[in-house]
Structure formats: structure tokens, C-alpha cells
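Title: Comparing notes on inverse folding

I've been comparing how different people in this forum approach sequence design from structure. To keep things fair, I'm posting one structure and asking everyone to reply with a full sequence. Here's the target:
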């Protein structure tokens, strides 16, 4: 059953090591992928981890519980440790024990529990019981508005809820995606939508998360899902720039008339058959009320698309949980969260339905090949003195804004004169200074949407070789020609931000993309950079390090 010629080593803590150079490595990877989340994928040994969520995701995608140990175990060099085998059995046993089904009327659902002892545990657990009404005949009744709250509470208790309650009626919407007219729908994009619609939850399926690398066309997946669902759709996006990008993609890639597409932001509130809104506006609070959320709750949408679903803090999930009667599609490049709240995504949006590794799409040419490079720059004497005297909370910013970085960035740009370049950071004083040094336009949250659109259009045409971008450049900008990204400051150790910034240069192109991070040497910023790198290393990217021990070159 196992032996020295097998490529996996399964350890007692649930981690799994894969010898990336083993003759059967790819075969083992394919067997392992449905059941375990990848932790890191450097050059030689890749690390995966089994968890309750990863196993429940596999079961939700149609895998049989018995297959988990068989598929993983047949590649294990030393077999499965007894405690890991027991954990898998426990996780599998908890799946399918609890389900939400349609209730006696549209305002209520019923929670079905397969075991009497578990039902007793649930009704005696305050976090779950507060959402339940126990009828005289023992039926567990759930207010439909608290559908998501019940699922969230039970996942916390250790039991995933199978949502079979179906969806409400919605306004029908038929449109065509212009496949073959300037673009081609890719096979994996169709497979994503097929997997999403094959999910449970009543007629037509449809709740869960699709994981695709930045630049792989998640927006088109969302559009295809809306077409296949054939009903009014709400898209929740991270910013006004993201809202405008969704609207532009819908106009260009479908035959929808302009008046069928509405945007709902701080500047304009227009509800149409397809409405694109920001999370900030939908969850805006006035006193004890959420007026915009109430409006969307009252409208019969057939599909909600949660763009960049992994970035959302738990309170936002909770506020949108009342929209559970709608098909829910989460789109993300990674389910990793710095606060470890991945289970909130599972509970309130749905399990992972489809996942494509970054390197897989790189090999097929669907995203660009990329190299990652870090330049470590000594602090200038003034910044070093300020850094030494500062309180720990202020040191990160002093290091990140170091003027010693300016000439290094200028040198990197000069070394790549033909590359369309993005300079990315978070501190406005630093970015204004760099924009002056480079003679490049600066785009921040204060830049008007019209001005941004003009600068982006000129960059796409090659009229502007370099743009300096604040946080608005980390997400939802479509600049396919960009092939060099220079990161000068970031949000502490955010792996999510690092993934998004690399994604700015991963649109398919002939040339290899290049991602450069400039960090202050021997500071807390360098420590944070190690955490930011982690996600990219996990995806198989190798970092080259240039350590400037002397003063930066001019």
C-alpha cells in the first residue's frame, strides 16, 4: 500500500510534504488537490495541509468520504498517521448531519438534523439556538432572514450545513456573451461555472467560491454565471474603480443594452437588472438601520457575485448574510485570510467549487510568466536616526517611506525602458515624491474617476510609460500591457495584497512579467516583506534578493 517510491509524506499535524521532483509528483498532486489546501510550493518540496474545511470542500464538490483516505494514502510513503486517519473520519462524519430545507412558508426554513443527540447539542448551544424556534412537534424553524447566521453558527460548532433550501423567485434576464467576438471563453472558465451551477441548493444550483489567479478572467466567470442563471444579478465589488470595470466588461462582452446595467456607489445609485455596487455602500449604517442593504434585500435578485470575496471582514459577511435566498458566487485569487476567518467564507458564501493553481495557468499561457525580485535598501542616516528613536508603532512607516528608495526605483525604471511600469505603494507623501522623481502621473483615491480613466487609457495606448498608484492600484484595474510592477510600500505583511499586486502584471503577454519589491534593510519592513512573499512562494514563485550593503546606486 505504501513504500519508498511514493512521493508524499503525511505528518501527524496534518501537513503533507510532496517531493516536487518525484516521477509521480503530478499524479499525486492531482489526487491531493481536492482534499488539502496548498501551504507553500517552493522549488523542491511542496507543503499541503488537511483540515476540516478542506475536507468539507472536497465533499461539497462531490467527493466520497471514503476516497479521502484512499486517494491521499495511496501516495503516502509511510502511510497515514493514525491520528490523521481519525481526524479525517471525524470531519467526514460531521458532513451531511445538518441541512437547511424549505419551510412551511417563504419566510421560514427548517433545520434538519440527522441525529437526536446532535439536535439536542444544537438547541442547547446559545450561539446556534438563538436563531431557532422549536415547534411543539420538535421541528427546528429558522427565520429566512437568518439563514446565513445559522450556517455560520453551526460551522463554528463544527458542523457544516448543507443548504438545500432553494432560492427565491427573481426577475428573469436573458443575454448573450459575445464569445468569439474579440475574445474566447476559456475551457477552465466554463468549468468554473459548470461546477458552481452543479452545486446543491435547489433547482439550478449555485452557491460557493471559485478560486482563480489574478489575470485569469474571474470577471468573465461571473458574467458567464449570470448568463447561465438567467436572472437579475447583484455584483458586490471592493471600490468604485472595480464597479466601473465590471460595468465596462459587461458592456463590451455581452449584448446587454446599456439601460440593463446599473451602478450603485456613493456617487450614483441606479438599480437595474444587473446592478454593481460597492460593499461600503451596501453595508452603510445610519443609526441602527442599513438602508441600502434593506433595499437589496427587498429586490428579488437571482444571483449575487461577491468579488474579491476573501478580502471581506467578517462583519460585512454577517451583514450580507440575510441575502442567502439568492444564489451566491464568491470570486477570489486566494481563500487565505490574515485573520484565519476562511470558515466564514465557507459558511456564508459556500464551499470552494473550483480551484486552478497559478502555475498551471502559467504553463498553459493563460497568465504571464513572472519573476519576483526584492531589493533591500539601507536606510539613509536621517531615517535611521528617526527609526531608532521612534516608538515601535511608527517604525514601519518610517522604514517604508525611506527616501533612500527613490533613486533605486528610478534606476529600476531606467533599466527597463520598454516595459510599461506600475509603481505601487500606500503612503501618499512617498508616492508624490516618487511621481516627481520619475516624472510620472500619480493616481490616488482623490483622483476623479474621469481623470483615472484618461490616464489608464493613455497607459494602455503606450502614451504614458509609467504610473504611480496608491491602494487604488492594488485591485480591479485592467492594464493588460503592464509588465513591471515596483512595490515601494505595503500593508504590513498582507499576503493578499502581494497577490493582488503581482496580478497587475499577469495578463497574458509574450514577455516575462517582473515584480520588484523595494524594502528598507534591517528594519521591521524587511520582516513584513518576508510575510508578504509567503503567498507568492506558496504559488511556486522564486524570489531573487539584491542586498544593497552600500548606499543605493544613483
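Reply #1:
Here's my take.
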Amino acid at each position: 500500500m505504501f513504500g519508498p517510491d511514493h512521493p508524499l509524506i503525511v505528518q501527524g499535524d496534518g501537513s503533507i510534504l510532496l517531493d516536487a521532483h518525484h516521477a509521480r509528483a503530478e499524479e499525486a498532486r492531482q489526487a491531493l488537490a481536492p482534499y488539502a489546501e496548498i501551504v507553500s510550493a517552493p522549488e523542491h518540496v511542496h507543503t499541503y495541509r488537511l483540515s476540516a474545511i478542506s475536507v468539507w470542500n472536497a465533499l461539497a464538490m462531490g467527493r466520497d468520504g471514503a476516497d479521502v483516505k484512499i486517494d491521499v494514502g495511496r501516495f503516502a510513503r509511510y502511510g497515514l498517521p493514525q491520528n490523521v486517519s481519525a481526524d479525517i473520519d471525524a470531519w467526514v462524519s460531521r458532513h451531511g448531519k445538518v441541512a437547511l430545507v424549505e419551510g412551511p412558508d417563504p419566510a421560514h426554513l427548517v433545520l434538519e438534523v440527522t441525529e437526536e443527540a446532535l439536535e439536542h447539542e444544537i438547541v442547547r448551544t446559545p450561539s446556534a439556538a438563538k436563531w431557532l424556534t422549536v415547534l411543539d412537534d420538535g421541528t427546528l424553524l429558522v427565520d429566512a432572514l437568518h439563514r446565513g447566521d445559522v450556517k455560520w453558527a453551526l460551522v463554528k460548532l463544527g458542523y457544516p450545513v448543507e443548504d438545500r433550501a432553494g432560492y427565491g423567485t427573481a426577475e428573469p434576464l436573458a443575454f448573450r456573451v459575445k464569445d468569439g467576438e474579440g475574445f474566447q471563453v476559456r475551457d477552465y472558465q466554463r468549468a468554473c461555472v459548470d461546477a458552481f451551477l452543479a452545486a446543491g441548493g435547489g433547482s439550478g444550483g449555485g452557491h460557493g467560491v471559485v478560486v482563480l489567479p489574478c489575470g485569469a478572467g474571474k470577471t468573465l466567470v461571473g458574467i458567464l454565471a449570470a448568463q447561465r442563471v438567467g436572472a437579475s444579478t447583484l455584483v458586490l465589488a471592493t471600490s468604485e474603480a472595480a464597479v466601473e470595470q465590471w460595468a465596462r466588461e459587461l458592456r463590451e462582452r455581452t449584448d446587454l443594452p446599456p439601460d440593463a446595467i446599473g451602478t450603485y456607489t456613493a456617487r450614483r445609485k441606479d438599480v437595474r437588472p444587473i446592478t454593481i455596487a460597492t460593499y461600503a455602500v451596501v453595508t452603510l449604517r445610519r443609526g441602527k438601520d442599513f438602508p441600502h442593504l434593506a433595499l437589496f434585500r427587498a429586490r428579488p435578485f437571482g444571483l449575487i457575485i461577491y468579488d474579491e470575496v476573501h478580502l471581506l471582514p467578517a462583519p460585512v459577511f454577517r451583514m450580507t448574510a440575510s441575502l442567502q435566498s439568492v444564489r451566491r458566487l464568491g470570486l477570489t485569487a486566494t481563500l487565505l485570510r490574515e485573520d484565519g476567518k476562511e470558515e466564514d467564507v465557507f459558511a456564508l458564501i459556500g464551499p470552494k467549487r473550483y480551484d486552478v493553481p497559478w502555475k498551471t495557468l502559467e504553463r498553459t499561457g493563460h497568465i504571464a510568466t513572472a519573476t519576483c525580485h526584492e531589493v533591500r535598501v539601507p536606510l539613509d542616516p536621517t531615517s535611521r536616526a528617526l527609526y531608532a528613536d521612534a516608538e515601535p508603532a511608527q517604525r514601519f512607516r518610517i522604514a517604508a517611506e525611506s527616501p533612500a528608495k527613490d533613486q533605486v526605483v528610478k534606476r529600476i525604471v531606467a533599466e527597463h525602458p520598454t516595459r510599461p511600469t506600475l509603481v505601487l505603494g500606500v503612503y501618499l507623501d512617498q508616492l508624490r515624491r516618487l511621481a516627481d522623481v520619475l516624472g510620472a502621473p500619480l493616481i490616488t483615491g482623490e483622483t476623479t474617476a474621469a481623470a483615472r480613466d484618461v490616464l489608464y487609457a493613455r497607459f494602455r495606448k503606450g502614451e504614458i510609460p509609467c504610473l504611480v498608484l496608491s491602494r487604488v492600484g492594488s485591485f480591479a484595474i485592467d492594464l493588460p500591457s503592464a509588465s513591471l510592477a515596483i512595490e515601494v510600500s505595503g500593508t504590513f505583511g498582507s499576503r493578499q495584497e502581494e497577490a493582488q499586486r503581482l496580478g497587475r502584471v499577469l495578463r497574458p503577454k509574450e514577455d516575462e512579467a517582473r515584480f520588484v519589491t523595494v524594502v528598507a534593510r534591517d528594519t521591521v519592513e524587511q520582516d513584513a516583506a518576508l510575510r508578504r512573499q509567503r503567498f507568492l512562494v506558496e504559488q511556486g514563485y522564486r524570489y531573487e534578493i539584491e542586498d544593497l550593503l552600500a548606499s543605493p546606486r544613483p
